[in-house]
Amino acid sequence: MISTMTDFINHYLPRSIIKRIKLIKYSVRYWLDFVLYYSQQLFKRRYVAKIVTGIGVNSDQILSLFYLGKGVNEAYLKSLLFSDIESEEYVGKYPFILLPFLRRLGRRKCDVRIYDCSSYFTWIFKCKGCFVIPSWVEQQIDLTGEWQDVVARFRKNTRKTDLRKIRKYAYQYSLTQDVDEIEHFYDYMYKPYLQQRFGDTVVLIDRGWVIEVAKHNALLKIELDGVTVSAAVISYAEKFLDWVWIGVSKMTQEDLNRGAFSALYYYSIMHAHEKKYPLIKLQGTRPLLNDGVFCYKRKWGTQLVKGRNNDNNLVTIFDFEVPAVQNWLSENPFISEIDVGFVANVFRSGSNENDSILKEISKWIIPGMSEVRVYVEKITSTPEDVSVEGVPVKYYVLGSQ
After folding, report:
1. Which helix (H) or strand (E) is 231 found in, with range?
2. What residue numbers bound the domain in which 18 lies?
3. Which of 7, 94, 323, 335 could be a cystine partner for 287, CB 3.0 to 4.6 Å?
């Protein structure tokens, strides 16, 4: 019996026409969502402009920041740049439609200017001398080949140290979809771990959503002597295993040094390989090459890719003559984007004849980088064509990019 229009279409129309109708329906829905999103951007969303002044991190000198954005990364940026904030001057709140005219606001004398905007609108603020820094980057691991091939792609120190700890303490892993265990994971592992690590800048995922995802996928638990010491919510996507949220039990640093995290990474990678996935994605990290999470993921032979959930770029302009800026840059190499991909930006005082730079760079190289840019005060000799682990290294004078 044909009771609905859908039944009529499925019964009488050829499959090719049905497919076309469905495509049109999805296309119309897509464009309606598109129009709705950008109408909200144009008329409802407000961008806040502030000037923040305080003592710079890695320095005892005054640093000033001009910030324009929706506040998505504001707390993180302030914690990254300042050890102590002395004042915040509210400049104004503006609708998106005025963004093309707001670039002038940042021309006020500030040591660092950051435009925290959607990646679609980066072009509005791009200018000579700026860095387009993704607010998040992602790392993934290639799982092709036999298991020994995957292990061979781990960093040498990982194979030597981390795997030895896993064998020594006899960690085990198991999978569960039990709601009580998932709730315990959220309340006593995931939430406390993130709060301890990120403090006031922490962004917690909704408890109900974490439980829902884990229920329909799995919670991978790492156990030591029958006690769960670390765990991760994993999602079985179509083409990769997604390592979504992690947490650890309340342990001392000595306990962590025994390899609770190492076991979590190792057995998650092993499980993805057992499931015949070609990739495991390890979610986002901040784009700092010396960030602890970024460096730890790199140990497992990861590749750098653009974050799937990264909707924001940080268009950043530095005043290289300010001592507080120089100190911060020398201690915080970071990733930026150019047309050909990701670039590692390293800042050093002196000239390009400092051979120790190349040794430092080797600590940060990761597949997926298109080049490393080393910024120095002066170039005293013609740089040779140099590469580290296959990634070309180029020298620039500060302010010449």
Report:
1. strand 227-236
2. 5-42
3. 335
